Amino acid sequence: MPGTIKVGGDYIDEKNTAMAELEQPEKTEVVVDENTRTMEKRIVRKLDMTLMPVVWVLYFFNYMDRNNIAQAKLDSFEKDLGLVGNQFNVAVSILNVGYVLMQLPSNMLLTRVRPSLYIPACAMLWSCVSASTAAAGNYGQLIAIRFILGIVEAPFFPGAYYILSAWYTRKELALRIAALYSALILATAFSGLIAAGVFAGLDNVRNIAGWQWLYIIEGSASFFAAGISIFILPDFPESNSGSGKWLFSEEEKKLSVDRIARDRVSATSEDEGIKHGLKLAVMDYRTWVFSLMLCSNHSAYSFNNFFPSMLKGFNLGSKTITLVLTAPPYLVATFIALGVALSSDRRKERGLHIAIPIVFAVIGFTITVSTLDKAGRYFASFLYVGGLFGSNSIIYAWASSSLNQTPAKRACATAIVNIMSQIGNIYAPYFFRPQDAPRYVLAVILMTVFSGLSIVTVMFVKSDLRRENKKLLAQEEESGVKANLYTT
Does the keyword Cell membrane apply (predicted)? Predict the structure, then answer.
């Protein structure tokens, strides 16, 4: 937007904007009148009623379809497939190998295709692949299915994350990312409840084991949801396709593009395509610091695939009771994540809203490794589940808003951050050695260490962005062009 803020348009080629702005003799502000504010509220409300519910439901099934192996472990899954030693750990880990390999190519492709077709198509594929786990007869077949499942699931989260950042401003994004992330938390919670019902009511019905019914039922529901999403999911703000054709007026589309452009962190508007965006992302050291931050966070919550097994070691009751008791910590974590995100958005602060919940996770892990008391260990699970899941979504929102100098850079940088975070999901399952069951002391100690590393990277980024903001303010004084600052 010439003559306003020194940023490039989010989907507009305005390569002379920065130079034009430098020629302005006085500071200029974007004046937003009451009609514009009303229209913005209407746009956000429409997005909250269409885009958010669709990506939430798809992410719910995305995580449920990959994580139901944790519940299957409590059934006859390992016995039926002949799994021995650490083969279950390998099955958990291998999915993330496929996930890592596909994420960056997928996000680069996403900038050139229609999300309303691409993402639902991927969801249909992963639904079919996940359901096919029920047909696995041995370890080799399970590994092949899990690897392919990682490939077809990989496009979803970074793609959804990218679409949300294309529509929502920074002050709106953390709460929406947390709302999206609540789908993951609730999927984990309801996986236990669904598994408890399936194992109790359908085990060996038509000679099909309970864990097989679990994969069939959840895969079918996921496929159905993906089919419906094609008709509701909007494409990018400037697109004339998808639900945006009937959801937004031309004036609303234009404002959607403009408001994201105004929200960008101050930078030149150079955007030379996806290859240049990849170069910018790779050369920015903050991309790698955020990657380490999120990788450490993911390493710390590696308990997720073993949580039912950990609770089984508490000797709290039968298999059904154990599965039911997996739900409360995740249900509480959902409210924590939303509350932290709401506070982060209102206060326009990220670092402390990430670090403080992780401190509670460290306390929870410390209690877990220090006592054999059942009640104490179960209470501790609320601390580390709530602390780690409460902070994770803020990291995503922070990375997106800090690495958004061009649309292509944001797409590549967010994919890189997500890819590197998945490396933690590849090696972390091996923390849980079979010989350490049911306490998994080594795993808990390692998760504590990675939680601490995550806190260190958070405080480094917060300090670094504060220094960068001082530089931007100094440039503002010299040029007379208002700077748009990083959120710290």
Answer: no
